[in-house]
Amino acid sequence: MKILIVEDERKVGQFLERAMAEQSYTVHVARTCAQAHDALAESAFDVIILDLGLPDGDGLDLLKAWRSAGHTEPVLILSARDAVADRIRGLNLGADDYLPKPFSVDEVVARVRSLLRRQAGAKVTVLTHGGIRLDLLARQATLQGAAVELTNREFALLELFLLHAGRVLTRTMIAEKIWESPYDVETNLIDVYVRRLRRKLERPGGPPLIRTVRGTGYQLA
Q1: Please, what's the b/e burial string for 166-181 (b: 16 or more CB within 10 A of its CB; e: otherwise)?
Q2: Given this model, what pLDDT does residue 182 score?
Q3: Which site from 18, 81, 114, 116 is most exposed, i.e. has the minimal number of CB atoms within 10 Å?
Q4: Which pTM value belongs to this model?
C-alpha cells in the first residue's frame, strides 16, 4: 500500500512517516502543494493524508483540484482547523475523513486502515466506458457486445485506463501498476501495449480511444 503524506511541518511529517512505515506501507512525503501535485501526477496512491495549511497554498484548494481532475484516492485531512464549518467544507470538497490536530497516531493509523478497507470493499467488478465492458471477475472484455481477446498485460492495462478514465496516466504510473517497476519506462513496452489496445478497441476512422499526451503519458478519451 502506498501512502502520500502532505505535511509541511517536518517533525509531524516524519512522525507520520514512521507510523505508516511501521505498518509496512510505502510512504512518500510532500511538504508543499506543488510537491503533492507532482507526486500524484507521477504515481498512484492508496490513501492521501492531507494537511491544509501549506506554505504555497490551501490544502482544500488542492483537494478540489484533485477531485476536479478525476483523482479518486481516499483523502484523510489532518488539520488544526477544527471548527465544524471547516470539517463540513473539507468533506463536501471530497475528503473521506477529517481528523483535527493534535491527534493520536494510533487513531490516524486506524482511520487509514478503515479507508483502505472501505476502498477494497467498494471495488467494482465491471468497468464500462463507451462500448467497452470489462468484467474483472470473469476476466472478459467486450466491445459493443463482441468478445475481445486480451492478454493478461493488455487486460491489466485496460483496467487501469478504465479505472482512471479521463485522467492522464504517466509512464511511471503505468509501469508501477502493470509491471510493478518504474524502470520499464525506459523501454518501449508501454508503447507496444498501448498500440495493441488501440488495434483491438479502436474502429478505423473513429475517434481515438487512448490519447497520447506528449512528454507525459496516455489518457483514455
Answers
A1: ebbbbbbbbbbbbbee
A2: 60
A3: 18
A4: 0.67
